Amino acid sequence: MTKTTKKTGKKRTKTSSPKVVSVKAKKPFSNYRQAMDYLLARTDYEKQEKVRYNVTTFSLDRMRNLLALVGDPHDKFRTVHIAGTKGKGSTATMLARMLESNGYAVGLYTSPHLIHLHERIVVNSEMITDTEMLGLMNRIHAPVEKLSKDDPPTFFELMTALAFMHFADRKVDIGVIETGLGGRLDSTNVIQPQVVGITSLSIDHKLQLGDTLDRIALEKAGVFKKGIPAITVQQEPIAMSVLKEQAIAVKAPLSITGSDIDFSYRFETSREHGPHTRICLSTPTSKFEHLRVPLHGKHQAINCGLALALLDKLKSSGYRIDVDKAADGLHRVTLAGRMEMICEDPRIMIDGAHNAASIRALIHAIGQNIPYDSMVVIFGCNSDKDVMGMLSELQYGADKVIFTRSSSPKAVSPQDLADMYTEICGKMYQTSSSLGEALQLARSAVGREDLICITGSFYLIGQAKMRFQPNRAAVAS
């Protein structure tokens, strides 16, 4: 554009100001698959057979540094922390559902998953979506890269940070957080919870946590914090002694269901609900009477009692809890991989029992709740477990055992399992190289009134669930 000046009559050119073009920074991941490939490439101790258990391998400082770089999301909502050997996921889920039914927005973080990685991060019973996960991964990428120059975060640390970020984004009222391994050095042990729960303790993860109950109890008690109330269930005397000592040492008030907290349960059968367990729990602030436990087994009654005690502790600290609403939420609880029937013809059940005490509880619960003529058990487990203890318990419930190998890199070979089983009891067994082959063998050995039970490893039952209920593609971790 030209313009003539009045003074000189000369023409001059008027230049327009350059347009400001905003250029969006390129995101590290353009799609979900890229983000998952990056996440799954992190060091994953769940897959490693031999892992050194120390403050370098499991570093809370590294976890805190990662969280600081994403805005300390774990400080933006209240939490309940649940540790223990068995029943953590069941207890956490029951507590979360009761809080949800009382109108609270609840984040639930558990591990491992059966089919899909997103099972670990849930808000009000809904798993995190692919879109939400992609967004979080794009946000956390730069912090991870920064830390990776000197001290790269692990897979579980990233998952924990992603859960905290998601819960903060969704503005949850409370997060129910399950520990992954142990307690003292677990990535989740950066939170300052409202209350701590300790489920039943038994031998598990022997290579990391030790092969005695007192050593295991010491690791689990590492989640106790000064002034924060803790609740546990009845434990073996040596484990209870350690828990009490540690609670006193850090000045954490400790209560015990069935001792300090009035708790009882009874098994019954009705036309409406069939075999089931009912529990009663009362405190100065709550009275839960004859509630039906939504999951089978005496062990689930104990877990349910702990969930109710934790709920009551929240109530006494100011949470609005209606007993009837809590009962309604409890009755709607279902939990994949816990005595879950995945096929009716033939009847095939899966259960994530992965230590000796859990196998014992499973056999007892099946005997109480599931009628059958003969039971064939398809069994596979990982090498870092109490393998001999599990096999010793298995002999008392299985009429026939088929040993197989799960998809875990830590899986014990079927022949090694068979050799140990022969050493223990000399009962009948078969071996198979895959779950598919094991199922073929089992099907040929059962009739209409028999039961096939798949157990020993979350990896194995996850494979089984995918085979019979492939509702969505799995993201393995």
Describe the structure.
Residues 1-15 have low confidence and may be disordered. The chain has helices spanning 32-40, 60-69, 88-101, 130-148, 155-169, 206-209, 213-220, 237-250, 298-316, 323-331, 356-369, 387-394, 414-424, 435-443, 458-468, and strands at 2-4, 11-13, 78-83, 106-109, 121-123, 126-127, 174-178, 195-198, 230-232, 254-256, 262-270, 274-282, 287-292, 340-344, 347-351, 375-379, 400-403, 429-431, 451-455. Helix 2 (60-69) packs across helix 4 (130-148), helix 3 packs across helix 9 and helix 7 packs parallel to helix 8. It is built from 15 helices and 19 strands. It folds into two domains: 32-331, Mur-like, catalytic domain (UDP-N-acetylmuramoyl-L-alanine:D-glutamate ligase, 3-Layer(aba) Sandwich); 340-468, Alpha-Beta Complex (Protein-Tyrosine Phosphatase, Chain A). It has 477 residues and is of the alpha/beta class. The protein is globular and about 60 Å long. Strand 11 (262-270) and strand 12 (274-282) form a beta hairpin.
Keywords:
single chain; six-stranded mixed beta sheet; 2 domains; 19 strands; alpha/beta; Protein-Tyrosine Phosphatase, Chain A; UDP-N-acetylmuramoyl-L-alanine:D-glutamate ligase; 477 residues; disordered N terminus; eight-stranded mixed beta sheet
